[in-house]
Amino acid sequence: MLGTRPVGFKVKWLADHMQSFDGMLLWTYGLRTERVGGTDVTKVDVIAFDPVALRVVKRQEVGRGPAHSVVLTPDRKQVLMNVAGDDLIVYIDPATTQVTHAVPVGKFPCDLHLSPDGRTAYLPDPPTDRQESELPRGASPTCSGSRPTASTSGSRRPSVT
User: Fold this and answer.
1) pLDDT at position 133 over 60
2) Helix, strand, coil proportions of the chain in percent (round to 5)?
3) What does pTM read for this prediction?
4) CATH code where residue 46 lies
């Protein structure tokens, strides 16, 4: 390390397996607290960071936090992010940072991992850390039903295709 300097956000949970670097920008998320109607609300932003210039080049609110994962599809055409406070996985256009699709996935999605080919996203169940749902990626994901979870009797999460 050569030194440190403020960049305007705290880097959250970056690792090689998370597929968060697109060749120019590092994609991550930032959490912030906003006062809404007398209550503190955690908001989550998707952030594109230039690691050469050491500056945030894109930042967009995507929902209520927390968040735990931001991954790029292998073709780098979509950014996927869990938005745990809204119980969603969102698809983000990296050119505009706008959410293009929001997929309800059940209570508090805590993580998100893509298969090596980028065709399936895995969401572990927080209490058991078992695979809970699969999200085959695509331009227009739609909910196609639900199935029982492994850990909570009667609880259901959608399967998305």
Assistant:
1) no
2) 5, 50, 50
3) 0.73
4) 2.40.128
